[in-house]
Amino acid sequence: MKGLYQMNLHALRIYCSVASKKSVTEAAKALLISQPAVTMQIRNLEKETGLTLMVPKGRGIELTEAGEFLFKQAERLFDMEADIEKKLEQYKKGEQEELRLSSTYLPANFLLPAWLAKFKNQFPLVHVNVYSGNSEQAIDKLLHYQTDVAFVVKEKWTEPDIALSHIMDIHYWFIVPKGHKYDGKEVMLSDLVQEPFIMRETGSSTREILFSLFKIHGVKPPYIGLQLHGFNESIRAVIAGYGVMLAPSLAVQDHLDRKEIGRTKVQGIDVKRPVYLCRRKADKHMPLTLKHFLELVKDETM
Protein backbone atom coordinates (compact mmCIF):
# COMPACT_ATOMS: atom_id res chain seq x y z
CA MET A 1 0.00 0.00 0.00
CA LYS A 2 1.31 3.40 -0.88
CA GLY A 3 1.93 5.99 1.81
CA LEU A 4 -0.54 8.83 2.15
CA TYR A 5 2.00 11.25 0.70
CA GLN A 6 1.80 9.29 -2.57
CA MET A 7 -2.00 9.26 -2.75
CA ASN A 8 -3.84 11.05 -5.51
CA LEU A 9 -5.07 14.11 -3.59
CA HIS A 10 -7.56 14.95 -6.35
CA ALA A 11 -9.19 11.55 -5.85
CA LEU A 12 -9.06 12.03 -2.10
CA ARG A 13 -10.96 15.33 -2.40
CA ILE A 14 -13.62 13.67 -4.51
CA TYR A 15 -13.81 10.85 -1.97
CA CYS A 16 -14.36 13.36 0.86
CA SER A 17 -17.21 14.96 -1.07
CA VAL A 18 -18.91 11.60 -1.60
CA ALA A 19 -18.32 10.61 2.04
CA SER A 20 -19.74 13.86 3.42
CA LYS A 21 -22.85 13.74 1.19
CA LYS A 22 -23.30 9.94 1.41
CA SER A 23 -24.06 10.04 -2.30
CA VAL A 24 -22.12 9.78 -5.56
CA THR A 25 -24.89 11.66 -7.34
CA GLU A 26 -24.88 14.61 -4.94
CA ALA A 27 -21.08 14.76 -4.93
CA ALA A 28 -20.99 14.81 -8.73
CA LYS A 29 -23.49 17.72 -8.75
CA ALA A 30 -21.48 19.67 -6.18
CA LEU A 31 -18.18 19.08 -8.00
CA LEU A 32 -19.69 19.73 -11.46
CA ILE A 33 -18.36 16.48 -12.88
CA SER A 34 -20.06 13.33 -14.17
CA GLN A 35 -21.11 10.45 -11.93
CA PRO A 36 -18.93 7.97 -13.88
CA ALA A 37 -15.91 10.24 -13.29
CA VAL A 38 -16.62 10.28 -9.55
CA THR A 39 -17.08 6.49 -9.47
CA MET A 40 -13.81 5.97 -11.37
CA GLN A 41 -11.87 8.12 -8.87
CA ILE A 42 -13.32 6.18 -5.93
CA ARG A 43 -12.43 2.86 -7.55
CA ASN A 44 -8.90 4.09 -8.25
CA LEU A 45 -8.56 5.17 -4.62
CA GLU A 46 -9.76 1.77 -3.37
CA LYS A 47 -7.32 0.07 -5.73
CA GLU A 48 -4.54 2.35 -4.53
CA THR A 49 -5.23 1.65 -0.85
CA GLY A 50 -6.14 -2.00 -1.29
CA LEU A 51 -9.28 -1.40 0.81
CA THR A 52 -13.02 -1.23 0.31
CA LEU A 53 -13.88 2.29 1.44
CA MET A 54 -17.61 2.45 0.80
CA VAL A 55 -20.52 0.17 -0.06
CA PRO A 56 -23.92 0.88 -1.64
CA LYS A 57 -26.82 1.63 0.73
CA GLY A 58 -30.22 2.38 -0.75
CA ARG A 59 -29.72 5.23 -3.19
CA GLY A 60 -26.57 6.37 -1.48
CA ILE A 61 -23.45 4.91 0.07
CA GLU A 62 -22.18 3.87 3.49
CA LEU A 63 -18.56 4.10 4.61
CA THR A 64 -16.75 1.03 5.82
CA GLU A 65 -14.68 1.24 9.00
CA ALA A 66 -11.57 1.89 6.91
CA GLY A 67 -13.50 4.41 4.83
CA GLU A 68 -14.64 6.30 7.94
CA PHE A 69 -11.05 6.45 9.19
CA LEU A 70 -9.78 7.75 5.84
CA PHE A 71 -12.57 10.33 5.67
CA LYS A 72 -11.76 11.78 9.11
CA GLN A 73 -8.03 11.87 8.44
CA ALA A 74 -8.47 13.37 4.98
CA GLU A 75 -10.71 16.11 6.39
CA ARG A 76 -7.96 17.03 8.84
CA LEU A 77 -5.39 16.95 6.03
CA PHE A 78 -7.36 19.43 3.91
CA ASP A 79 -8.12 21.59 6.94
CA MET A 80 -4.39 21.71 7.65
CA GLU A 81 -3.75 22.63 4.01
CA ALA A 82 -6.25 25.51 4.30
CA ASP A 83 -4.62 26.62 7.55
CA ILE A 84 -1.17 26.66 5.91
CA GLU A 85 -2.47 28.67 2.96
CA LYS A 86 -4.14 31.18 5.28
CA LYS A 87 -1.04 31.67 7.40
CA LEU A 88 1.22 32.02 4.38
CA GLU A 89 -1.15 34.67 3.02
CA GLN A 90 -0.93 36.47 6.37
CA TYR A 91 2.87 36.45 6.17
CA LYS A 92 2.69 37.68 2.59
CA LYS A 93 0.47 40.63 3.59
CA GLY A 94 2.46 41.34 6.72
CA GLU A 95 -0.59 40.78 8.90
CA GLN A 96 -0.45 39.97 12.59
CA GLU A 97 -0.88 36.28 13.36
CA GLU A 98 -4.18 35.28 14.92
CA LEU A 99 -4.69 33.70 18.32
CA ARG A 100 -7.41 31.10 17.78
CA LEU A 101 -8.91 29.34 20.77
CA SER A 102 -11.75 26.90 21.36
CA SER A 103 -13.20 26.27 24.78
CA THR A 104 -15.97 24.65 26.75
CA TYR A 105 -18.44 26.82 28.65
CA LEU A 106 -16.68 27.34 31.99
CA PRO A 107 -13.22 28.40 30.75
CA ALA A 108 -14.80 30.51 28.00
CA ASN A 109 -16.98 32.42 30.43
CA PHE A 110 -14.98 32.56 33.66
CA LEU A 111 -11.28 32.13 32.82
CA LEU A 112 -10.51 33.26 29.28
CA PRO A 113 -11.99 36.79 29.51
CA ALA A 114 -9.55 37.84 32.25
CA TRP A 115 -6.60 36.10 30.60
CA LEU A 116 -7.37 37.59 27.20
CA ALA A 117 -7.86 41.09 28.60
CA LYS A 118 -4.39 40.92 30.11
CA PHE A 119 -2.96 39.45 26.92
CA LYS A 120 -4.55 42.14 24.71
CA ASN A 121 -3.12 44.87 26.94
CA GLN A 122 0.33 43.45 26.24
CA PHE A 123 -0.25 42.59 22.56
CA PRO A 124 -2.99 44.96 21.29
CA LEU A 125 -2.48 44.21 17.58
CA VAL A 126 -3.03 40.44 17.80
CA HIS A 127 -6.35 39.26 16.36
CA VAL A 128 -8.09 36.96 18.87
CA ASN A 129 -10.89 34.53 17.97
CA VAL A 130 -12.59 32.35 20.59
CA TYR A 131 -15.03 29.57 19.73
CA SER A 132 -17.22 28.26 22.56
CA GLY A 133 -19.04 24.91 22.58
CA ASN A 134 -19.22 21.54 24.28
CA SER A 135 -16.12 19.39 24.72
CA GLU A 136 -16.65 17.50 21.46
CA GLN A 137 -17.04 20.72 19.49
CA ALA A 138 -14.03 22.39 21.11
CA ILE A 139 -11.81 19.38 20.39
CA ASP A 140 -13.16 19.04 16.85
CA LYS A 141 -12.22 22.67 16.12
CA LEU A 142 -8.69 21.92 17.30
CA LEU A 143 -8.27 18.67 15.36
CA HIS A 144 -9.54 20.33 12.16
CA TYR A 145 -7.03 23.20 12.44
CA GLN A 146 -9.71 25.81 13.04
CA THR A 147 -8.10 26.67 16.38
CA ASP A 148 -4.57 26.27 17.72
CA VAL A 149 -5.38 25.37 21.31
CA ALA A 150 -8.44 24.30 23.31
CA PHE A 151 -9.44 24.67 26.95
CA VAL A 152 -11.66 21.78 27.97
CA VAL A 153 -13.30 20.61 31.18
CA LYS A 154 -13.42 16.84 30.86
CA GLU A 155 -12.52 13.76 32.94
CA LYS A 156 -12.32 10.89 30.44
CA TRP A 157 -10.16 11.17 27.34
CA THR A 158 -9.98 8.83 24.36
CA GLU A 159 -8.55 11.18 21.71
CA PRO A 160 -5.11 9.77 20.74
CA ASP A 161 -4.08 12.84 18.74
CA ILE A 162 -4.46 15.32 21.62
CA ALA A 163 -1.65 16.39 23.96
CA LEU A 164 -3.07 17.29 27.39
CA SER A 165 -1.77 19.63 30.10
CA HIS A 166 -3.73 19.88 33.33
CA ILE A 167 -3.88 23.54 34.33
CA MET A 168 -6.32 23.66 37.25
CA ASP A 169 -9.36 22.16 38.95
CA ILE A 170 -12.75 23.84 39.26
CA HIS A 171 -14.58 23.14 42.51
CA TYR A 172 -18.34 22.63 42.52
CA TRP A 173 -20.51 23.80 45.42
CA PHE A 174 -24.07 23.16 46.55
CA ILE A 175 -25.96 26.45 46.65
CA VAL A 176 -29.32 27.32 48.21
CA PRO A 177 -31.43 30.49 48.47
CA LYS A 178 -30.13 33.09 50.93
CA GLY A 179 -31.58 32.38 54.39
CA HIS A 180 -32.44 28.74 53.57
CA LYS A 181 -32.37 26.46 56.59
CA TYR A 182 -29.17 24.85 55.27
CA ASP A 183 -27.47 28.13 54.33
CA GLY A 184 -23.97 28.14 55.86
CA LYS A 185 -24.37 24.67 57.37
CA GLU A 186 -22.84 21.26 56.77
CA VAL A 187 -25.39 18.53 56.17
CA MET A 188 -25.66 14.93 55.06
CA LEU A 189 -26.47 14.30 51.40
CA SER A 190 -29.47 12.25 52.53
CA ASP A 191 -30.87 15.36 54.22
CA LEU A 192 -30.12 17.73 51.33
CA VAL A 193 -31.98 15.55 48.81
CA GLN A 194 -35.20 16.10 50.75
CA GLU A 195 -35.19 19.59 49.23
CA PRO A 196 -36.31 20.28 45.63
CA PHE A 197 -33.36 20.41 43.22
CA ILE A 198 -32.71 22.48 40.13
CA MET A 199 -31.22 20.16 37.51
CA ARG A 200 -29.45 20.75 34.24
CA GLU A 201 -30.75 19.04 31.11
CA THR A 202 -30.21 15.36 30.33
CA GLY A 203 -26.66 14.89 28.99
CA SER A 204 -25.23 17.69 31.12
CA SER A 205 -22.00 16.68 32.86
CA THR A 206 -23.14 18.43 36.06
CA ARG A 207 -26.31 16.34 36.09
CA GLU A 208 -24.24 13.17 35.54
CA ILE A 209 -21.96 14.09 38.47
CA LEU A 210 -24.98 14.55 40.76
CA PHE A 211 -26.56 11.23 39.86
CA SER A 212 -23.19 9.51 40.33
CA LEU A 213 -23.02 11.01 43.83
CA PHE A 214 -26.51 9.74 44.63
CA LYS A 215 -25.57 6.24 43.45
CA ILE A 216 -22.20 6.13 45.26
CA HIS A 217 -23.72 7.29 48.55
CA GLY A 218 -26.81 5.10 48.24
CA VAL A 219 -29.16 8.09 48.27
CA LYS A 220 -32.45 8.27 46.40
CA PRO A 221 -32.38 11.09 43.82
CA PRO A 222 -34.27 14.21 44.88
CA TYR A 223 -37.43 15.68 43.47
CA ILE A 224 -36.51 17.74 40.40
CA GLY A 225 -38.39 20.98 40.87
CA LEU A 226 -36.92 22.69 37.82
CA GLN A 227 -34.90 21.51 34.84
CA LEU A 228 -33.06 24.30 33.04
CA HIS A 229 -30.62 24.34 30.14
CA GLY A 230 -27.93 26.63 31.48
CA PHE A 231 -25.99 27.64 34.58
CA ASN A 232 -27.09 31.27 34.47
CA GLU A 233 -30.79 30.40 34.35
CA SER A 234 -30.37 27.88 37.18
CA ILE A 235 -28.43 30.29 39.40
CA ARG A 236 -31.06 32.98 38.79
CA ALA A 237 -33.74 30.61 40.07
CA VAL A 238 -31.77 30.07 43.30
CA ILE A 239 -31.28 33.84 43.68
CA ALA A 240 -35.05 34.20 43.26
CA GLY A 241 -35.53 31.87 46.23
CA TYR A 242 -36.06 28.37 44.86
CA GLY A 243 -34.19 25.07 44.96
CA VAL A 244 -30.81 23.47 45.57
CA MET A 245 -28.27 23.11 42.81
CA LEU A 246 -24.70 21.98 42.23
CA ALA A 247 -22.76 24.76 40.52
CA PRO A 248 -19.14 25.59 39.64
CA SER A 249 -17.51 27.91 42.16
CA LEU A 250 -16.37 30.18 39.33
CA ALA A 251 -19.99 30.83 38.38
CA VAL A 252 -21.35 31.52 41.88
CA GLN A 253 -18.51 33.14 43.86
CA ASP A 254 -19.59 36.70 43.00
CA HIS A 255 -23.20 35.93 43.97
CA LEU A 256 -22.01 34.53 47.31
CA ASP A 257 -19.85 37.59 47.93
CA ARG A 258 -22.89 39.80 47.29
CA LYS A 259 -24.94 37.59 49.64
CA GLU A 260 -27.48 36.84 46.92
CA ILE A 261 -27.35 33.08 47.59
CA GLY A 262 -26.16 30.71 50.30
CA ARG A 263 -23.78 27.76 50.24
CA THR A 264 -24.26 24.37 51.88
CA LYS A 265 -21.41 21.96 52.55
CA VAL A 266 -22.13 18.24 52.34
CA GLN A 267 -20.30 15.83 54.61
CA GLY A 268 -17.75 13.66 52.81
CA ILE A 269 -18.27 15.23 49.40
CA ASP A 270 -15.78 17.44 47.54
CA VAL A 271 -16.62 17.82 43.85
CA LYS A 272 -14.05 19.19 41.44
CA ARG A 273 -13.46 18.94 37.71
CA PRO A 274 -10.19 19.29 35.77
CA VAL A 275 -9.47 21.95 33.16
CA TYR A 276 -7.08 20.81 30.42
CA LEU A 277 -5.08 22.74 27.89
CA CYS A 278 -5.24 20.75 24.64
CA ARG A 279 -2.92 20.85 21.66
CA ARG A 280 -2.39 18.65 18.63
CA LYS A 281 0.36 16.07 19.16
CA ALA A 282 1.39 16.52 15.53
CA ASP A 283 2.27 20.19 16.05
CA LYS A 284 6.03 20.59 16.30
CA HIS A 285 6.12 24.38 15.97
CA MET A 286 4.39 26.80 18.33
CA PRO A 287 3.62 30.27 16.94
CA LEU A 288 5.20 33.04 18.99
CA THR A 289 1.79 34.63 19.69
CA LEU A 290 0.46 31.37 21.11
CA LYS A 291 3.64 30.90 23.15
CA HIS A 292 3.17 34.32 24.75
CA PHE A 293 -0.45 33.57 25.60
CA LEU A 294 0.30 30.16 27.12
CA GLU A 295 3.08 31.68 29.22
CA LEU A 296 0.53 34.17 30.55
CA VAL A 297 -1.94 31.36 31.34
CA LYS A 298 0.80 29.47 33.18
CA ASP A 299 1.59 32.54 35.28
CA GLU A 300 -2.09 33.08 36.07
CA THR A 301 -2.72 29.49 37.16
CA MET A 302 0.46 28.77 39.12
From TrEMBL:
<protein>
    <submittedName>
        <fullName>Transcriptional regulator</fullName>
    </submittedName>
</protein>
<dbReference type="InterPro" id="IPR005119">
    <property type="entry name" value="LysR_subst-bd"/>
</dbReference>
<dbReference type="InterPro" id="IPR036390">
    <property type="entry name" value="WH_DNA-bd_sf"/>
</dbReference>
<keyword id="KW-0805">Transcription regulation</keyword>
<dbReference type="InterPro" id="IPR000847">
    <property type="entry name" value="LysR_HTH_N"/>
</dbReference>
<keyword id="KW-0804">Transcription</keyword>
<feature type="domain" description="HTH lysR-type">
    <location>
        <begin position="7"/>
        <end position="64"/>
    </location>
</feature>
<comment type="similarity">
    <text>Belongs to the LysR transcriptional regulatory family.</text>
</comment>
<dbReference type="Pfam" id="PF00126">
    <property type="entry name" value="HTH_1"/>
</dbReference>
<dbReference type="GO" id="GO:0003700">
    <property type="term" value="F:DNA-binding transcription factor activity"/>
</dbReference>
<dbReference type="Pfam" id="PF03466">
    <property type="entry name" value="LysR_substrate"/>
</dbReference>
<dbReference type="InterPro" id="IPR036388">
    <property type="entry name" value="WH-like_DNA-bd_sf"/>
</dbReference>
<keyword id="KW-0238">DNA-binding</keyword>
<dbReference type="GO" id="GO:0000976">
    <property type="term" value="F:transcription cis-regulatory region binding"/>
</dbReference>
